[in-house]
Amino acid sequence: MKPTETANEIMQTIGLISLLMIGANQYEYYENGLSFRIYGSKKFNHIKICINPYNDEYFDMVFTRFCSKSDKAIETISIEGVVFDELCKIITKQTDLFTQIL
């Protein structure tokens, strides 16, 4: 699968409206995933989502807070084995940004 196909699959799983709600931009495509910056969260400003290498039905997520001056990672949380329907819930829990309209 091409990097853009994998990234588009992940973006559709999360939902384009959800990505807009968290201010996602500066997308980077990988062979097995996608990363992007977010705005509005005091906890994290970067999310990387990859397909789990051992099981294609699960995702691995990495939430990172980069220092704005030096681009060094200040804080990082990794979550492995996330089911596709829990992606938005975990993004909301980790970033305190809503991904769905109530």
Structure characteristics:
alpha+beta; Aspartate Aminotransferase, domain 1; five-stranded antiparallel β-sheet; 5 strands; 26% helix; 35% strand
Give the SSE map.
Layout: H1 3-14, H2 16-21, E1 25-29, E2 33-37, E3 46-51, E4 58-66, E5 73-83, H3 87-95
Tell me about this structure.
The protein is 26% helix and 35% strand. By secondary structure, it is α+β, with helices and mostly antiparallel strands. A 5-stranded antiparallel sheet has the order 1-2-3-4-5. The longest helix is centred in the first third of the chain and has 12 residues, at 3-14. The model has no long low-confidence stretch (mean pLDDT 91). The chain has helices at 3-14, 16-21, 87-95; strands at residues 25-29, 33-37, 46-51, 58-66, 73-83.
Per DSSP, the total helix count is 3
Shape: globular
Helix content: 25-40%
**Beta strands, count:** 5
| Biggest sheet: strand arrangement | 1-2-3-4-5
Report low-confidence residues grouped into runs of 5 or more: none
Distance between the termini: 35 Å
Architecture, CATH level 2? Alpha-Beta Complex
How much of the residues is beta strand, in percent? 35-45%
